[in-house]
Specification:
single chain, alpha+beta, Major capsid protein gp5 fold, hypothetical protein PF0899 fold, 8-stranded mixed beta sheet, 7-stranded mixed beta sheet, 9 helices, 17 strands, 21% strand, Phage_capsid-like_C, Phage_capsid, Phage capsid protein
Length: 378
């Protein structure tokens, strides 16, 4: 009788068990890796939701890389060209989150920017066509002939511009401190220096390598329909060195000289010393013309219109224009390139690191009918 060998089936059984054990071990290791990845993702999620210094949202990877890589340590990993003449020269692009933070703080502390029309462009130059005579129109019957209307007259607005710069500095020790909020510090410093410089230019700028301020425009006593386009109307104070005996009447005349459409949203602009004099003015019934804001955050008002203090406005004096009134959103245009650039300089002022920030900004009167002035003159 033939006898079969029992060893071969037994070996196959042991091989199957070994394979099952190996598979279970591999699956266990894979589960461990998955749990570790999930744990890491949870930690990242908790960090992303954690409030940052100043109460803002967690910075994006671009902002974090810019702050830790370039601002703190100066790693040259994000070089981009920002010179319009030479493509190989430039600074470093500020991430949009920081640039928007700078813009928001500029609007909060720059008086004219807060009330003017601001256009952000991607190029150094900006031009705008506006009509100076309007489009002629007329009434006709249902079947009447439609005569050709007159051609409107256009004017081109090309705000003079210049490169605005700020150069704040921080010690390397401050930058190495992980608790030092570089983002907020840099935005505050740049916005503060930009605001001081542009505030003066938007009022008194010459138009040469800088914006042309609204006080740089020519003026006339002629009404809107009789003045040259671009020329502002002024009302004289009645006294060579100040106001006459009834300054409140001059202020009322100034308000009423503005078209009713522009008076919606109109604002007074003067410096604090002029405002100190205006606050003392009273109406015939003894009430003050100036009224404080009733609610916190509400602007103070003069004859019912908000008052903005701009310290670059001139004081009351002979031939000066200490008070402006108008709808600046319609009357003054600010054109700026949308990106701020920063050059990190750790060499010039050791042991401090300077951050040379630049931005191209232009400005000009847009609608000369929308801004009126008081001139100290007879």
């Amino acid at each position: 009788m033939e006898c079969t060998d029992p060893v071969e089936p037994l070996d196959a059984s042991f091989d199957l068990i070994a394979r099952q054990d190996a598979a279970e071990e591999a699956i266990g290791a894979l589960r461990g890796d998955v749990e570790e990845v999930k744990s890491r993702l949870e930690r990242v999620g908790r960090f992303a939701g954690r409030p940052q210094i100043g109460g803002g949202a967690a910075p994006s990877l671009e902002v974090k890389g810019f702050i830790d890589g370039y601002l703190r340590r100066g790693r040259e990993t994000e070089l981009k060209s920002f010179n319009g003449a030479v493509a190989g020269e430039g600074g470093y692009a500020v991430p949009r989150e920081i640039d928007d933070l700078i813009a928001a703080r500029l609007k909060a502390i720059s008086p004219i920017r807060s009330i003017a029309q601001v256009v952000r462009t991607g190029t150094a130059g900006y031009r705008k066509l506006i009509t100076t005579s309007g489009v002629a129109s007329g009434w006709v019957s249902e079947t009447g002939v439609r005569p050709e209307t007159a051609t409107p007259t256009f004017a081109e607005i090309a705000p003079p511009s210049g490169e605005l710069y700020a150069n704040p500095a921080a010690s390397q020790a401050m930058l190495d401190d992980a608790q030092f909020d570089v983002q907020s510090w840099l935005a505050n410093e740049i916005a503060g220096e930009f605001a001081r410089a542009e505030g003066a230019a938007f009022v008194n700028g010459t138009g040469t390598n800088q914006p042309k301020g609204f006080l740089g425009a020519t003026t006339s006593t002629a009404a809107d329909s009789a003045r040259t386009f671009g020329q502002l109307q002024h009302i004289v104070s009645g006294n060579a060195t100040g106001f006459d005996a009834s300054p409140e009447l001059k202020l009322i005349d100034l308000v009423q000289s503005l078209k009713s459409g522009h008076r919606q949203g109109a604002t007074w602009v003067m410096n604090s010393r002029t405002l100190a004099s205006v606050r003392k003015l009273k109406a015939a019934d003894g009430s003050f013309l100036w009224q404080p804001g009733i609610v916190d955050g509400q602007p103070n008002r003069l004859l019912g219109y908000a008052v903005i203090e701009a310290e670059d406005m001139p004081d009351i004096g002979a031939n000066a224009y200490p008070i402006a009134f108008g709808n600046f959103r319609a009357g003054y245009l600010i054109a700026e390139r949308s990106t701020t650039t920063i050059l990190r300089d750790p060499y010039t002022n050791k042991p401090f690191v300077n951050f040379y920030a630049t931005k191209r900004i232009g400005g000009q009167v847009l609608d000369s009918d929308a801004i009126k002035l008081i001139k100290i003159s007879t």
